[in-house]
Each structure stands twice: as C-alpha cells, then as structure tokens.
Amino acid sequence: MIESTIQAGFTGAEFSRFLDSRDEPDWLVKRRRTSWDRFEKRSWPSRRDEEWIRTDIRLFKLDRFSLPIQAAEGLEPVSSLLAEDLELGGQSISMNSHSLLSTLSDSLKSQGVVFGSIGQLMEEHGELIEELLCRRQLDADSDRFNLLNEACWSTGHLLYVPRGVVIDEPVHFHSLLGEGGVDLANSMIVLEEGASATVLAEMTSTGDAQPGFHCGSLEIMVGGGANLRFVNLQNWSHSVWHFARHHARLEQDASLQWTSAAMGSRLSKVNQHVTLAGKGANCQVNGVLFTEGKQHLSYHTLQHHKAPGCRSDFLYKAALQGRSRTVWRGMIKVDRAGQQTDGYQRNDNLLLSDQARADSIPGLEIAADDVRCTHGSTTSQVDEELIFYANCRGLARREAVRLIVSGFFQQIFDRITIDSVRDALADAIARRVRDFD
Amino acid sequence: MPDFVKVATVADVPDPGTLLLEVEDRILVLVHLDGQYYCLDDVCTHDGGPLADGTLEGCELICPRHGARFDVRTGQALTMPATEATSVHEVKVDGEDVFVRIVET
Hints:
Chain A is built from eight helices and 20 strands. Chain A is an alpha/beta fold. The two termini of chain A are 36 Å apart. Chain B has a six-stranded antiparallel sheet with strand order 1-9-8-4-3-2, with no helix packed on it. Chain B has a three-stranded antiparallel sheet with strand order 5-6-7, with no helix packed on it. The model of chain B has no long low-confidence stretch (mean pLDDT 90). The A-B interface holds A 47, 53-54, 56, 58-59, 325, 359 and B 22, 25, 27, 47-48, 50, 65.
C-alpha cells in the first residue's frame, strides 16, 4: 500500500503551507492566491444546475483528502497499458501530483521540444510556461473544482513543439494515483504552427482500498496547419473521484484527432470542449466509455465553431454493465462567423444490464445560416438474436457478448492508427465484459 | 447481509417528516409517518432526482423535479414520469434510536 499524504484537508493554513513548500515565481503565486480566494467563496455545484442535475456529488468529501505537499517516497512507476512495446520520444510520469520520471530523446531536445513535468520545467522555461498559462482558454472561474485546480495544481505534464517540428515517435504522459492519493494536474499540449505530434496520456491507480481524488485540467493548443493525434485513457480504480476540464483550441487548418477512453473512477465529471478558432480547422473526437458496478461517468462535450469552413466530428460510444450510469451531454455551437461549418455528433449506448442507465442529451445552438450540423443518439440492449446466432456456432454466452461489445466499439478502434494502442484498448474492454442475463 | 446502523434518534425526525441520511456510501431518505419509520434510496427512478427535497403527502413522497410519486412503505412508483420502484431498506427503532439496514437489490 502506498500512503503519500497527511490528512490535513484543504484549509487556508494548508494552502499557505502548500505555497511555502514550492519555490515558485511571484506571478504564479499571485495567480494561485486569487483562485484560492475565489474557491473559498464559491459553493460546490448545485444539483439544480443543468450540468450537475444528473451527477450527485453529495458523497464527495474534500476534507477527506489533503493538498499534495509532500512527495511520496519509495514509489515506483507501474506498467503502462498504452505505451507497452512502443518506442517513445519522451515519457513523463507522475504519482500523487509529484513528478517521478521525465525523459526526452536527445534529437527532440535539439529541435527545441520542451517536455516533462511542468513543475520541474518551471526553472528552465519559466517565461514559456507563463506565456502558455496566459494563452489558456480554460474558464477557470466556471465552477469550484476548476478554481481548486487553478489554485492548487501540482505538476502536470507539458509538451511544447516549436514551429514546424514533426515528432514521429509518440510521447507518453502517465499519471498515477496511490491509495488515498490526490492528483491535481494541470497539463498542456502546445503545437506551434506546422508542428505535428502524437501524445498518449494515461491515468492509472496503484490500489483501490482508499478513495482517490483527481481534479485536473488539460489545455491543448494546435497552431495553424499543425496536426495532433491524442489518445487519453482514464483507467483509475473504482474508488477515485474524477473531475476534469479539457479544452482544445485549433487555429487555421489545424487538425486534431482525439480519442478518449474512460473505464475507471467511481464518479467522473468531465467537460471536453473543442474550439475551432481558425478557418478550415478539423477535429475528430472519439469517445469510449465502459462502466460497471456503480460507476457514474458524466461527459459534457462542446464543439464550438468560431470560424468558417471548419469540420468537427464527435462520436461517443458507451457500454454499461451492472448498475452503472453514463451521462453524455453534447453541444454543437456555431457562431455567426461559422459559415460552411460541417458538424456532427453522435452517442451510442449499449446496455449490458437491465439496471444500467444511459442519459444522452445531444444539442445544437446555431447562429450561422449556411451550415450542416447533424446529431444522433441510440440506446439499446444486446440483441438476443445475435447471441443465439453466436451460440449456434459454438460460442458461450460470455464470448458472444464480448464479440458484440468489441463490434460495438470497432468503429472507434478503426480510427486509432497506432496498432498497439488499438489492441490495448480492445483487450482492456474485452477483459471487463461479464456474464449477464 | 449488512448490520443495522444507527442513523438518528426519534427526536431528529418530526411526524410527519423526512431526514436525509448517508449510510454505507448511499444517500437515503428516512421517513417518519404516523409513528412508523421507512427508509428509501434518495433517488427518483425517473431522472435521479433528490426525493428528500420533495414533499410528503400521506404515504406518498413527491419528487421535486417532475412530480413523480413514490409509496414510502414499498418504494413503488405511483405516477409518471417514474415507472420503476426506488429501493427501500429495513428500519427498526430501539428506545430513542433509529437504525437502518441496507437491502441490496
């Protein structure tokens, strides 16, 4: 068992101790204090708020966790699902909000790529990090979790790719949570004009006996003509509370393929926003949710078209077992300037138990008059005829269900171009499929 | 089967009245009605609404969001938009103390 935090809560005194423990520049300390003041004045989201009406956080107790002031000792990285057998350009590993390991190939260093734990990079690249934090589009004021992250973020991973640099090998972010651990990551992926990269991000627990807490933010900036492939796997244990805000901004002719898989956590509330800010930007977002037991995963997506001629394609697929629940609420928003927009969103849900529940709420908010925006949603149980068909060919019910679930997600797996990542995700899901009646 | 857990004293809940509880990672509503105690999941089976915030009319607990009614004795959904029962749990009173035992379904 790994214990790395002293239970002292998120108090003003602990926040001061947290600041004292960090040797950070004045501009950052000031930012943190401002956010902390707002955090203290703000209430937790109310269940009357539309965004929280289906997500019950009354059992979440912040005072059971504490600020990640002291680094854990004697911790070792655990194996990765996504990066196994891959030749990586760099790897950044954190545990309970403290950096464990950070590597970057010499060739990438020589091309000006900045990569690793933000906290550790602060000394050498303070000016760059200050500039990037100022460029962030995250609305840190939007709720109490975001303010908490803005005030207390610790570590987080950064990839900065200078103009025109193309990274062939994937880089890997791995965030680990120990027993009772807290992860307050603030990660950024920044590709300047014409750059190209592939990023694999993974979240893993090392145990599930004690509740864990993740309150994170991720900002992605894809410059003009740049191209980012991003795979994100949330694989926490079922005792982790997961609150995250992800935002990507695409400039002119930028391209983003974002695959987001979530299988872990006790409760997740994730806001995933993509802003298409430059003409001709193109994004494809693929979501895989697999839940079991009493898990509750709530995803709120926004594809915001601010510029003309952009394309966005969101596909979220969820398979649910046990008494688990998913909430997917998607919005395509097109500003008046967003003429010739091509926007699509779809959510498919496969219920593997008669006690599972999937809420699907697609939406359109369109101010332009020359666009094509479509959306769709399906929810169904496994077709008994398909199982019968498989039974007739010698497959047991469980194998039949595995095949059907694999087929359900295949549309998304087909979009993942890294073979080992595609296989790892498919295997992880197939292993979790249980028998059902 | 889980043990009974002390959740309140009889003085904590007026008759008629309700009390929000947290027991073993579940949120429950304790109902005191005509001298009897009942315990239900604090979940409207229509959209997960908080029943403890609702009003009690006779033996019916009304969800504040869309007006679904549940029988506090059995958990049965009595009106649309809810169609499925919410879970009920065992309650016993020992002296001045009220105990609840979670019933897993």
